[in-house]
């Protein structure tokens, strides 16, 4: 692609408390040059329409109202002046407690027909932390200022925390702390107390139960306990609440080591607005969000670090997916004929260190990395990508092929295909060596001369030019 190309992309974010729709125009250009591997990059992004922020519609505490959600998205398409067929790409991301709702898969499927080519994903807590940290600007700030930055994305049900340093992710974690863990009706009667909120109430020495009348002093004590937990998570304030942190750790999230030398803190998510800008109405949202924002603003989180207010707080989210065609694969490829086409396959890319481990026959570090990613996305299909080596020896290649087979046997169900993308032109030899592994009952696709990054999604079409090459589409999530 020699010339710049513009596409219209839509991002739909379904969170614990809120749902929103964003339309963006994305400018893409080939940054790879004429004589190198094509690498189309997003060179400019313009948000052209933002929906209002809706309360995520629920049928019950564990069921999202799929029909109501579709109605919201359809209405926003009309307000924005677009039809589904106008969009070139898009992303549906379901996060927070919504990702744990019983019908979250049905929600993703019901929304995925609102654009021609959608990426859909239920983000696990660690992945959501990364999404929020990029969306708030914390990741970019850490690169621009060469410093250590934390982002706390405080929503209705969870607080996702990520730590960046100079663009690198040092740690990520998640706690069940949020503004809608305790809810009340317009008459001031408590209608919901989540298990995590009950833990916090007990730690604060107060009793809060469904059916009680709201007591601002008691609920303030609960939210101050929540703020104290977040303080301890970032290494300030009380040190004696490790047991509480273990009880409210979000299932599926990583351990978060207490960080040192954090220079700046960003707050994003729905509660962030209430941290930076206090609401005069304590019960404005029928929950404890206003009290939680106030408790955090009065805590050491707000006084001990340089505070950075994102350009967007509640909207620090995915805004779409840039779709671009990397013409064709290289011609040194291996594949099984009847497997194509393949759509929206997530990429797990090995860095140089993990690739070296693979070529050395050390499979455990690679297995741990893949299992973590799969745990975040609830995927079974994935593409294993690596930069590849120039002119590796036969013994080295044979060892790597055996490693890849062992890795896939550990991390994938039987019968799932082995999908490889290698940037250097060794895919054909690697694929053939994998297929020669004894008792292999998997299809193998190995293509090269394609540059992909971790977290992207790939489509592969049917082979072309007498089976010599494969058309490939790579999709990149774009963050607000």
TrEMBL record:
Looking at the Swiss-Prot or TrEMBL record, what is one Pfam family this protein matches? Answer: EutA
Question: What keywords does the record list, in alphabetical order?
Answer: Lyase
Q: Which InterPro entries match?
A: ATPase_NBD, EutA, FtsA/MreB
KW Protease (keyword) present? no
Specify whether Endoplasmic reticulum is a keyword of the entry: no
Name assigned to this protein:
Ethanolamine utilization protein, possible chaperonin protecting lyase from inhibition
Q: Which GO terms describe its molecular function?
A: lyase activity
């Amino acid at each position: 692609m020699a010339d710049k190309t513009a596409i219209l992309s839509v991002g739909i974010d379904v969170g614990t408390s809120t749902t929103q729709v964003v339309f963006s125009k994305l400018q893409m250009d080939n940054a790879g040059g004429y004589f190198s591997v094509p690498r189309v990059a997003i060179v400019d992004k313009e948000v052209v329409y933002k929906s209002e922020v809706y309360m995520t519609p629920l049928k019950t505490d564990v069921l999202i109202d799929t029909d109501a959600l579709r109605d919201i998205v359809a209405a926003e398409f009309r307000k924005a002046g677009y039809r589904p067929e106008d969009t070139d790409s898009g992303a549906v991301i379901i996060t927070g407690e919504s990702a744990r709702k019983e019908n979250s898969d049905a929600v993703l499927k019901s929304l995925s027909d609102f654009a021609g080519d959608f990426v859909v994903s239920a983000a696990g807590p660690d992945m959501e932390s990364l999404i929020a940290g990029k969306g708030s600007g914390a990741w970019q700030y850490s690169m621009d200022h060469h410093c250590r930055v934390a982002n706390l994305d405080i929503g209705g049900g969870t607080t996702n925390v990520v730590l960046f340093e100079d663009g690198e992710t040092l740690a990520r974690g998640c706690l069940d702390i949020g503004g809608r863990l305790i809810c009340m009706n317009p008459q001031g009667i408590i209608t919901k107390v989540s298990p995590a909120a009950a833990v916090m109430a007990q730690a604060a020495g107060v009793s809060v139960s469904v059916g009680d009348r709201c007591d601002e002093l008691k609920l303030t004590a609960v939210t101050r306990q929540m703020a104290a937990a977040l303080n301890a998570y970032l290494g300030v304030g009380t040190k004696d609440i490790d047991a509480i942190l273990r009880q409210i750790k979000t299932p599926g999230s990583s351990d978060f080591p207490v960080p040192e030398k954090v220079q700046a803190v960003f707050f994003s998510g729905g509660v962030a607005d209430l941290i930076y800008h206090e609401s005069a109405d304590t019960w404005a949202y029928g929950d404890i969000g206003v009290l939680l924002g106030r408790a955090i603003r009065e805590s050491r989180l707000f006084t001990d670090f340089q505070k950075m207010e994102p350009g967007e707080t509640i909207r620090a989210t995915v805004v779409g997916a840039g779709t671009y065609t990397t013409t064709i694969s290289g011609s040194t490829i291996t594949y099984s004929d009847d497997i194509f086409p393949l759509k929206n396959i997530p990429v797990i890319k090995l860095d140089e260190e993990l690739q070296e481990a693979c070529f050395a026959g050390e499979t455990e570090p690679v297995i741990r990395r893949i299992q973590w990613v799969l745990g975040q996305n609830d995927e079974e299909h994935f593409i294993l990508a690596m930069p590849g080596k120039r002119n590796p020896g036969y013994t080295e290649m044979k060892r790597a092929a055996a490693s890849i087979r062992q890795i896939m046997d550990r991390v994938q169900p039987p019968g799932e295909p082995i999908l490889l993308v290698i940037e250097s032109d060794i895919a054909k030899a690697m694929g053939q060596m994998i297929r020669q592994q004894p008792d292999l009952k998997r299809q193998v696709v190995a293509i090269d001369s394609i540059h992909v990054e971790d977290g992207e999604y790939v489509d592969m079409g049917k082979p072309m030019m007498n089976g010599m090459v494969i058309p490939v589409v790579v999709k990149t999530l774009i963050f607000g």
